[in-house]
Each structure stands twice: as structure tokens, then as C-alpha cells.
Amino acid sequence: MTDDRQFAPATQRNREPILEVLQRILPSSGTILEIASGTGEHAVFFTPRLPGRKWLPTDIHYLSLASISAWLKYSPSDNIYPPILLDVCENIWAIELENQYLNEITAIVSINMIHIAPWAACLGLMAGAGRILPENGILYLYGPFKQNGQHTAPSNAAFDEMLKSQNPEWGVRDLEEVIAVAKMQNLHWRETVSMPANNLSVVFEKLG
């Protein structure tokens, strides 16, 4: 039998600090929609440690969806849904068209996505969160950010250059610009938390 599980070394390093923030800021019930779940390692680690919630992993890549499904077989949990295909750049997301899970979603989590994607993905994420999240719903972002237009560490500057060498549309985003885009979708910036390895957790809340 083949094993479709993929492995991301960064997951082992960041999952505990991220979990600490999620346990504090996520609603105590409902479904957490994860955007760009990648390998699926975060999903299977978080779900047993977030009782009372359901977790819905998604990705745009079929290889990632296969990896997530493989991780769910390897590490099953009662509170995680099978992964679904989702492209944040679509004007209407697939889950909106199917009206599936919508009434359950109380938060959206996106880890290490907006810098390894075109800027349009950040715009699409904010627009989708503005449409889908209920009042007081939470949007959580994790990753490296520039602040006041400046990198916060030399390692982040080097990472930014590497990303842009792979795709000119990729790159570490400016936090203030992300907050401004979120505000346009009625998403209020709530807090920024410093994380290991010069990353940030950024928390938004949907206004009524």
C-alpha cells in the first residue's frame, strides 16, 4: 500500500506555539475552516486538542488533499471532516455554492499561506472570510510579516527573496496592508502575537 502522507518539518516546530494561541482565541464551538491545510499535519495535531469544535481542512492542490486524507487514516479523530478542494481566489467558494458547513463555521485558520501565493489569494481570503464568518467569528493568520514596510529579521528578508525568485507574485506581506484589506471586509484586527522563528499570529474578528 502507498502512503500519501507528506511531511513539513516546520509543522513540528510551530504546532505547539500555534495551538496555544488557538486554544485561547478560537470560539468554544462550531467548525473551524482551515484554508490551505497543506500536508494535513496541523489538522490532525490540533483537532484532538480542541474539544467541542469540528475541523474542516481544505486545499487547492490534489496532492495535498491526498496527504490530508492519508493523515486522517493514520491519525483518525472524531471531530475532523474529510478535506475538500477550495480555491480562495474564486469569487464564490465551493462550500458557499453547495451551502455545506456554512451554518457551522465560526472561525477560519490560515497558516503559512498568503506569502506562498499571489496577493490575490490574500484578497480572496479576506473577501471569503467577510462573507462566511458570523458576527464575532475569528480569522487567524500565521506566518512571517513585514511591519511598517520593513522585515523584522534578516532571515525573513532572505526568505522573501527566495520566495520571489520562485514566483514574483509571492512574498512576505506587509502587516499594515493586510490589516487594511481585512478592514474593508468588516474584519477588525484584534491582536498580533509574536511567535518563534520571527513569525506572527494575527487575529481578526468579524464585526456585526
UniProtKB/TrEMBL annotation:
Pfam families: DUF938. InterPro entries: DUF938 (IPR010342), SAM-dependent_MTases_sf (IPR029063). PANTHER family: UPF0585 PROTEIN CG18661. This is DUF938 domain-containing protein.
